[in-house]
Amino acid sequence: MIRLVLAAVLILPGLLALGAALLGVYRFSTMLNRVHAAAACDTLGALLVLLGLVVLSGWNGLSLKLLLTILFLWLSSPVASHLIVHAEVRTQPHLAQSCDLMEIDGQGKLREMALTTPNEEN
Q1: Which element (helix H / strand E) includes 112?
Q2: Which of 104, 52, 42, 51 is nearest to 76 (CA)?
Q3: Helix (H), strand (E) at residue 78
Q4: The Cα angle at residue 73 between residues 99 and 78, in degrees rounded to 5
Q5: How large is the average pLDDT for residues 11-34?
Q6: Closest by alpha carbon to 8, among 46, 41, 56?
Q7: pLDDT at 45
Q8: pLDDT of 65-76, one tens digit each?
Q9: What does the alpha-carbon distance between residue 51 and residue 45 come to, in Å, rounded to a whole number?
């Protein structure tokens, strides 16, 4: 009974975090905001839901697989989100009109990003 309650305490907030990510993906207008909402909430939501499933299943082979899934998601999701946003910034020439794009220079200072279209790089 205690295991079931603890699993529910982990799974329900995880589902709420995943629901917030879903709502953010549909509500925000720009792609950058959508990716941010999804990336911020899906890692937390997946962690809580999968930890709840680990508690529910007990310590066995399945729980080891779930823990490895958590590790994989926590390593790959931020990288994938970064690559998607990086591709969006580099391929949308009019993106600077709707948001401030900053980058860190070689000396560790923030400066405005100079955008080039893919044709200008060659």
Answers
A1: strand 110-112
A2: 42
A3: helix 61-91
A4: 20
A5: 91
A6: 56
A7: 93
A8: 999 999 999 999
A9: 10
